[in-house]
Amino acid sequence: MSEDLQQKIKEQGDLVRKLKAEKASKDQGSSSKASYNEFITTPELESLNLYFQDNSYISSYILTDLDMMLYGILSAHSSKLTSYTNLSRWFHHIKAVANSDKLIKPDLNRLRNSLNCSSPKSISTSSISYLNKQIDEEVAKLKALKLEAGVDAKPANAAPKGSPKKGGGNAPDSKSSGGKLILKTAKGTRDYEPSQMAVREKVFGKITEIFKLHGAETIETPVFELKEVLTGKYGEDSKLIYDLADQGGEILALRYDLTVPFARYCAMNKVDRIKRYHIAKVYRRDNPSIARGRLREFYQCDFDIAGAYDAMLPDAECVKIVDQILSSVDVGKFVIKVNHRMILDGIFEVCGVPNSMFRTICSAVDKLDKSPWEEVKREMVSEKGLDEAAADRIGEYVQKAGGLPLIDELLQGDLAKSKIAKQGLEDMKLLLKYCELYNCSENVSFDLSLARGLDYYTGVIYEAVLCGDSVDDKGEPITVGSVAGGGRYDGLVGMFDPKHRSVPCVGVSIGIERLFSIMEANMTKNQSKVRTVETQVYVVTAQKGLIEERIKIVAELWGAGIKCEHSYKLNPKMLKQLQDCEDTGVPLAVVIGESEIAGGIVKIRNIESREEVEVKRADMVQVLKERLGLL
Question: 553 near 237, Cβ under 8 Å?
């Protein structure tokens, strides 16, 4: 056994023993019920830190008055929280999204009862189960090292627990599958043919061009993040995050969107002002529907403006960008719905909704685009326990949509009695005025039913939907839901920043896959042919034995920046070469034969009209460029 391998076995053994000791300590700690008294001692803070590792709020995914009580207690001891990553993240999230003017007097008995009941289960289950998994993996690595050293009693072909089968982790089990491999893509993913990719590249190019038109620069972030970066940002949708197996001590997950990684990037790199776009894949463990463009792996096209600016100027530009993008692609009529989180909170306030139920009632309102008011009301009253009279008052507001006249009407009514609602209405009025100046107001609607469920939104919210006049080749309507969404998230960067430095941000994300599903259906319906190559010139030989001359011409055209091809046959038939040009849509051909070579000329052929002209070989490049410029 080499000294290097011996050292690896020793280090791996030490790691396994350390993990087992840590598990034993946690087992001992979890055997007795967690106990909270004043919520400020070191054991209490450690316990809270573990609790918020997997929970966004005290009541799982819902902001309640319990969070406000605990926030009030910890506010006086915030300097202690810097050592507790998850607890600090929760604290600064509550600071960003909650109304600090409405801090609730702590009810220590309620807090103790709630956390003493929930903590043992959540802490012991999450942390100890993770340790068990980590121990199994590290033991498997230790066994593999021992097998390599030849000191394990097990036969060499006995794979350690958790290791992949011979041939790779994805190799099919011939016994269980009968020796047949079923070729398919994973659920919620798909392949794209050249014709589909040609359309996608064209659309991506248009979107990138519009982003750059507005002065944006681009960044790239990893496709996976530390799980704690993503946890607690998506409300009830957090369950859709793809977790990854431990790869050396880090708990990782695939990115759910591009916004949270962008906020992490700004905090980590101390960026306080940037206008950025990012086009990349994201992953969600959702129930897929290929026809509606709902996938588990899909592209998002994000545009965000970070920095402190005057009210509604960046927000209105985001609306304009959505309008430009949707107008530039062939998807039919659309409407961009806009609303404001402060208006929604004000509606709930004047309708008598308890502060602890704001977010859960907001999630019910968010379903109005898919369900009638009667069903949404039933959910509020029967499932979530809201007073029926309060639900009826909410219904009077959230079924309204319009423009500036609606805002003026609301400013004259009871809603204006709410301070936060009035501020939201003033912001919305300014936004709509800017949209008029940007010439996009005809596609914008102030819609009080728009809620958007992500936790991090703090101000204006947007959502673009198609008007439903698109049909497939069978005449059936194509329904894809929203095709763009976004809003203002002023507190997200501060949740990651070590000094909790706040960076105001607003942005929008284009649901590009849903747009593609509409465009593909339109292509099928219209039976339109898509050109999949960009070749401009095809070099054709009329006789045998001219491969060397053909290669010389191709090399010269490539050097001049002209996209060209030639046959990979030594002696291709001329008709077959011309047919290839017609099939792929190549507009021009350079034709050479023995007589052309002897005369120092070439023939340039227009494939569509079949017209040919002779030009000097020295003038070939110049003439081709002139003709391509006219096509």
Answer: no
Spatial separation of the C-alpha atoms in residues 380 and 346, rounded to whole Å: 17
pTM of the model: 0.69
Angle at 500 between CA 494 and CA 502, to 5 degrees: 45
Please give the share of the chain, as a percent, with pLDDT higher than 90.
46
Which distant-in-sequence residues (6+ apart) come within 8 Å of 22 by Cβ?
Answer: 131
Residue 618: CB atoms within 10 Å:
9
HSE (side-chain half, CA atoms, 13 Å) at 521: 24
Q: Is residue 469 within 8 Å of residue 476, measured between CB atoms? A: no
- Helix extents (H) in 219-282: 227-230, 259-268
Q: Which residues of 192-230 are buried (b: 16+ CB within 10 A; e: fewer)?
A: eeeebebbbeebeeebeebbeeeebeebeeeebbebbbb
Q: For residue 457, which of 427, 490, 414, 417 has the smallest C-alpha distance?
A: 490
Q: How far apart are CA 233 and CA 489, in angstroms?
A: 11
Residue range 204-246, pLDDT digits in tens:
999 999 999 999 999 999 999 998 898 877 766 678 899 988 7
The CA angle 301-302-307, to the nearest 5 degrees, is 165
Higher-confidence position of 579 and 165: 579
Contacts of 195 (CB under 8 A, 6+ apart): 523, 530, 532
Predicted confidence (pLDDT) per residue in 75-91, tens digit = 888 878 877 877 887 88
> What is the Cα–Cα distance from 408 to 422, expressed in whole angstroms?
11
Tokens encoding 419: 């301070």
Q: How far is CA 158 from CA 11, 147, 167, 171, 292, in A?
A: 23, 9, 14, 17, 46
Contact call for residues 257 and 265 (beta carbons, < 8 A): no
- Rounded mean pLDDT, 409-427: 93
298 touches 282 (CB < 8 A): yes
Q: Residue 535 above 80 pLDDT? A: yes
Token duo for residue 23: 């598990």
Q: In sequence order, what E strands does 76-221 have?
A: 217-218
User: Which H or E run contains 566?
Assistant: strand 564-566
Lookup: tokens for 57: 């709020």
pLDDT at site 235: 67
C-alpha torsion angle, residues 284, 287, 290, 296 (rounded to 10): 20
